[in-house]
Amino acid sequence: MKAYTVTEFIEFLNAAFSEAVFPEGVTIEGEVAEYRVSQNKWIWFLLKDEESVVSCFATVWQLRTPLEDGMQVKVFGMPKVYPKSGKFSVVVERAEPVGAGALRRAFELLKKKLGDEGLFDAARKRPLSRFPERIGLIASGESAAYSDFLRILGNRWGGVEVNHVHVQVQGQDAERSITSAFAHFNTHPELADVLVLTRGGGSLEDLHAFNSEDVARAVFSSKIPVVVGVGHERDESLADYVADVRASTPSNAAEIVVPDRGEIEAAVDGAARRIGSAMEREMRERLARVDRFVHRLESVVMNAVSSFRHRLRDFSAAMKTFGDGIASMQRARIRLTERLVSSATSWANRLTGRLLADERLLSGLDPENVLKRGYAIVRAGGRALKDADAVRVSDNIDIRLHRGGLAATVTEVKE
Amino acid sequence: MTVKKNDKIDFGKSFEELEGIIEWFESEEVDLDEGIKKFERGLELAKTCKERLKEVENKVNEIKVKFGEIEE
To answer: What is the pTM assigned to this prediction?
Structure first.
């Protein structure tokens, strides 16, 4: 029997595995255990069932499916014995979760990873053009999704250019064809104002491409806004979460990218009506404003008039008071005059009385009146003679009587 | 204004201008001269938009992409 060297033995085993035993590689199904990543490059884990365990190895760049302990998976790879350690393991090229639970779990893990990276952030979602002229459609040309989308698009809106890239939406080539379509539109941005990635519904396995990291990143890095519409309302994919706008179905994607012709037509008619009525309202308002102005002017004038009237009334009242004053003054004057006259009369009467008395008194003093009573006035040398000594014998004297006079000569002077 | 067949209007711009005019009418103290101008422009835009809405067909172009070719 031939004796192998250790190196020869290991080389033989590895060659036998890859060339004779598993020329197309091997698929092993089991549960992941002791999953670990070292230096962010190497992945180690065990694949096990109830009785056995096999060691698995992979590189981070090659194995894109997120795994974790307890997950049921199918791994595709090649068994290999490492010469340096003599360790046997399966070099894993890819892994597929098995069963709904595991698929769901893998989906959740990738979702968390991409979410943590910010691929789903609402802040990065871009608004869509309200009236796109060109739509980039990424869908399988044979799918119901494709025809549904175009039908609803046509029902709603017209005059749009749809640039369609036919892609595989399922199976091995799906991821690559979808990412290529995104790359194409992004190198020819004139082809689309908005991209629509759509397909019908399906199981998590069917939707694999739409849940893949590569497609999610292609949607994320597209410079053109993306609408993703997958399947029926209840289906959801990672591509949905990354999309700028998520549509629930292919038809809904059409509803999202274009407006409804009828609604817009109504809006345009409404606009014309609203502008018309705004104009009308404006005119009415202006007329009302003129009216108000006239009213105000009127009321100002009326106020002025009424205040003038008030003043006039005040004035006439004042005049009346003034007139009354004058009248009463006149009355007073009359009274005063009357009193003055009456007092003047009585004064005059009194005066007259006194004058008469005085006259009587005076008339008693009048020498004529004395002469009447028999007295005579003797004058010597023109002067009334009151003393006998004033004359001498033989002087001439005048004697005045009541009626007539006498010329006499003093014959004797008596003591 | 009449729209010629080849003279494709930017519907979005026309519609937004129309909306802007409504907003102007409904929010601002309207200047009458400006209002009449905007009123006329608005009716013109409404007519243009209605013309564009008569377009019923959408054109579909098939674009061939070789997968993996465009990995720039």
So the answer is: 0.62
